[in-house]
Amino acid sequence: MADFSPETSVSFRFSRAERLKKRDEIRAVFKKGRVASCSGAKLFVLPNDLLRNRIAFTFSRKFGNAVARNRARRLGREAYRHIGFALHPGYDMVLLVYPGNDSFQERFDQLNFLFAKAGLRIF
Prior knowledge:
The chain is of the alpha+beta class. 34% of the residues lie in helices and 20% in strands. Helix 2 (66-83) packs across helix 3 (104-117). The two termini are 27 Å apart.
């Protein structure tokens, strides 16, 4: 039987350390980062000096009400949680989402495509 101690297991949790929260850091990603886009979303990527990735989810101005934005944020976080371990570390990212794709599978496919287009996928 395999040993699944905390030291050897991989955590798929979306931790606080992975969240990009400071306004100045988010602005820097928008201003200096490179952009990968697809239908319904844009991904801004900027290298950081950390050993982990940090991401923020933001929305266009006409995205709907708070319920729709919070649902889209939850879907984005869940999709990132499933993909995040397969990305090169050391990047700050901002995902700008437009109205439309409101299912988990669509958001997952969208993020997968954007990360591959930005060259962040390991495999």
